[in-house]
Every structure is written in structure tokens, then in C-alpha cells.
């Protein structure tokens, strides 16, 4: 394959536009337009929370340009056949993706990459809009084992995350906030997102990440781990009340029991004070935060409905409840997660076009 450095932009027409959620908002990308870049890899950032490639190409004026290419998480890409050695610095590649809404930014969300040897690597995402007339190859149906006790690997049902935490990328506009809560939201600036510094915010974000969760059932507890977190939640099944000497933490302390209908009811207190965006983007949380969750397996054991009720009299004038659904997915081990602050914030300084 011969490579010539070019940039090609094409438009496609969208039938539906389901939001794409990530570690940070992806609303900045144009999903009804694709850009093709041909150039050389100058850096491969295979690190959490997202993989980034840096590409050098030449524009139509024969000027050298540098581009930042955003990929998925290392775990998600590995599941789709990628590895940290898929491309190396110096490799010539063709990359297709969605450009930034700011046409002055050289920032692209990758959809596919073709190496010089002709091998193609794609990035599938259920949130990516489908173009008019686009025919996707039928996906192989993986084997999914039903859950009988909440154990297993779960993923958010497509569309659920927007319904549950459409607040993931912006402050809630319909929550009953106190005066203090309103004043903090009024100062919202996504540049201050704690995620850009790899700072954990705990519940409820931990439960509504647009990533996979691994639930492990033990005799006395259920452990819950999120793909994109170094922390783990534990639901204690053998306690009727919380200990009186709790050490405050961002995850709090959770006790749980099963209702007569089989639902799992979880009660969590003991949260740290003054957690930035601990309730939602732009909405902090206090040590008075109280979270009540209900999880219910569907009859076939392949889905789980949930509701999360948040109380925090410092920032909420009354409780807020959000609901959603997880789907069971094929079992696979989670890779160790170590968030890199440089990778978490690199999208804030994407290169700009040549003057």
C-alpha cells in the first residue's frame, strides 16, 4: 500500500443520534461527518482512561499538521482486537473518524484504522449513530450466561446512561437544588472536571459509568467493581445496621438485604465531606449524603433494573431518584486500571490547524 499524505472530509446522513458517552463529554464531535487522515504515528498513548494516538499529516496546502486521535479504553479496544502494539511510532496509517465541532481543532474520534500492511482495526460503539443506507455486518452473538444471584459482568443498556446520568457531561437542569447547590452549578466549567485529574467521585457516578461492571457474590457480601475505577464497592449482607465508627470515604459504607420479591436493597452512608461533583457534574456532595439503591434481576437473568435515590440536604432540597438498566454481557477479566492524569486531560489541549 502506498501512502500519500492527505486529508479527506465526507458527510453522512444520520437516522438517529444517540449520544456517545465517555470519561468526558463527546458532544464536541460531529457524528454526521467523517474525516479521513493519512499520515504517520508520532505517539501511541496506550493508557487509561482512554487511548490516544498522535498523527502527523500534511494538509491541502502541503503544510505539516499534527492531530490528536481519541480511542476507547484499553480494555474496550483489546476486546475488539487491538493491542498496545497494533500501531507503533513511525507507522504509516489511514484513520477515519468524527471531527471536532470546532473546525480549528485537529481532534478526531477514531472509527477505524488501516495499517500499511492493509490490516484494518475498527472501533465499535453502540452509541455511534448509524448513517443512512449503512449496512453493518451481522455481529456474532456471544454466549451470555444468565445470572441467578446478581453475579457476573454487566453493561449499561444502550441509552440508559443518558437517561440515568445525562448529567454525566453537564449539570442536571431539573434537580431540586438548595441555594448553595444552585450557586455551585452556576459556576460550572467542565475544565474543572475532577476526572481530568483522575479524582474519584464515588456514588452515584460509580454506578452509572458508561463502562462495564463486575459483580461478585459471596456468602456475606457482594463486591462491585467498575471497569474504569481503582475502587470497589462492597454491599455487606450480614449487617443490619451501619457501624458507629465509620471512616468517611468517597464510596461510603453499604449494607444490603434481599426483599421478598428478590430485589436487592442497598443503603449507603459514611461519605466523605466536600466531594467535588460528588452528586453530579457541577453538584458537590457532603458527608450528609445518603444513597438508597434497588436492583432487580429480570426473570431471564439477562438484565437488571435499578433505581438510585440520592439525599443530601446541603445541596438537594429534596431527594432525587434516577432509574436505569444493565444488561448481562460475556464474562471477561478486567485489566488493571491506573488512570493517567496526562491522558485524562490531553483532550483539553488538542492541536489547532496551521495558521
How would you sum up this structure, described in words?
The chain has 355 residues and is mainly beta. It folds into two domains: 7-138, Nucleic acid-binding proteins (OB fold (Dihydrolipoamide Acetyltransferase, E2P)), CATH 2.40.50.140; 152-328, no CATH class. The chain has five helices and 18 strands. It has a nine-stranded mixed β-barrel with strand order 8-9-10-11-12-13-16-17-18. Residues 1-23 have low confidence and may be disordered.
Strand content: 25-35%
What is the β-strand count? 18
Percent in helix: under 10%
| Lateral strand order in the biggest sheet | 8-9-10-11-12-13-16-17-18
Form type: globular
Number of helices: 5
**Order of SSEs, N→C?**
EEEEHEEEEHHHEEEEEEEEEEH
Structural class: mainly beta
Instruction: Give the biggest beta sheet.
Output: 9 strands, mixed, barrel
Ranges with pLDDT <50 over ≥5 residues?
1-23
Question: How many structurally independent domains?
Answer: 2
Question: Distance between the terminal alpha carbons, to the nearest Å?
Answer: 31 Å
Radius of gyration: 22 Å
Give the rounded overall mean pLDDT: 84
In short:
By secondary structure, the chain is mostly beta strands. It has 5 helices and 18 strands.
What is this structure's SSE topology?
Elements: E1 7-11, E2 33-45, E3 52-58, E4 64-70, H1 74-79, E5 92-99, E6 107-115, E7 120-122, E8 152-156, H2 160-165, H3 179-185, H4 205-208, E9 213-217, E10 221-226, E11 232-236, E12 253-258, E13 264-269, E14 275-280, E15 283-285, E16 290-297, E17 303-311, E18 320-328, H5 341-345
Parallel strand pairs: 4-6, 11-12
Antiparallel strand pairs: 1-2, 2-3, 2-5, 3-4, 5-6, 6-7, 8-9, 8-18, 9-10, 10-11, 12-13, 13-16, 14-15, 16-17, 17-18
Amino acid at each position: 500500500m502506498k501512502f500519500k499524505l492527505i486529508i479527506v472530509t465526507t458527510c453522512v446522513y444520520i437516522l438517529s443520534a444517540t449520544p456517545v458517552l465517555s470519561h468526558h463529554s463527546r458532544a464536541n464531535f460531529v457524528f454526521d461527518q467523517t474525516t479521513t487522515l493519512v499520515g504517520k504515528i508520532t505517539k501511541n498513548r496506550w493508557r487509561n482512561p482512554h487511548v490516544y494516538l498522535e498523527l502527523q499529516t500534511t494538509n491541502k496546502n502541503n503544510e505539516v499538521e499534527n492531530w490528536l486521535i481519541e480511542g476507547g479504553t484499553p480494555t474496550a479496544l483489546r476486546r475488539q482486537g487491538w493491542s498496545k502494539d497494533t500501531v507503533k511510532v513511525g507507522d504509516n496509517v489511514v484513520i477515519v473518524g468524527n471531527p471536532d465541532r470546532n473546525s480549528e481543532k485537529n481532534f478526531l474520534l477514531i472509527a477505524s484504522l488501516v495499517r500499511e500492511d492493509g490490516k484494518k482495526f475498527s472501533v465499535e460503539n453502540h452509541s455511534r449513530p448509524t448513517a443512512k443506507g449503512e449496512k453493518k455486518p451481522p455481529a456474532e452473538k456471544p454466549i451470555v450466561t444468565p445470572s441467578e444471584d446478581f453475579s457476573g459482568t454487566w453493561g449499561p443498556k444502550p441509552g440508559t446512561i443518558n437517561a440515568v446520568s445525562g448529567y454525566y457531561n453537564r449539570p442536571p437542569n431539573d434537580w431540586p437544588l438548595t441555594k448553595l447547590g444552585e450557586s455551585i452549578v452556576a459556576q460550572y466549567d467542565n475544565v474543572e472536571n475532577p476526572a481530568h485529574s483522575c479524582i474519584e467521585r464515588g456514588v452515584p457516578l460509580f454506578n452509572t459509568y458508561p463502562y462495564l461492571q463486575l459483580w461478585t457474590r459471596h456468602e456475606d457480601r457482594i463486591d462491585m467493581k467498575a471497569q474504569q475505577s481503582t475502587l470497589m464497592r462492597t454491599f455487606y449482607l450480614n449487617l443490619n445496621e451501619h457501624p458507629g465508627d465509620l471512616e468517611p470515604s468517597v464510596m461510603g459504607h453499604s449494607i444490603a438485604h434481599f426483599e421478598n420479591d428478590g430485589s436487592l436493597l442497598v443503603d449507603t452512608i459514611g461519605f466523605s465531606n466536600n466531594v467535588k461533583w460528588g452528586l453530579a457534574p457541577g453538584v458537590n456532595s457532603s458527608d450528609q449524603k445518603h444513597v438508597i439503591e434497588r436492583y432487580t434481576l429480570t426473570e431471564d437473568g439477562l438484565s437488571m433494573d435499578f433505581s438510585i435515590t440520592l439525599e443530601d440536604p446541603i445541596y438537594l432540597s429534596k431527594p432525587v431518584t434516577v432509574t436505569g438498566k444493565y444488561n448481562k454481557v460475556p464474562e471477561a477479566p478486567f485489566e488493571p486500571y491506573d488512570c493517567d492524569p496526562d491522558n485524562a486531560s490531553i483532550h483539553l489541549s488538542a492541536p489547532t490547524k496551521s495558521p
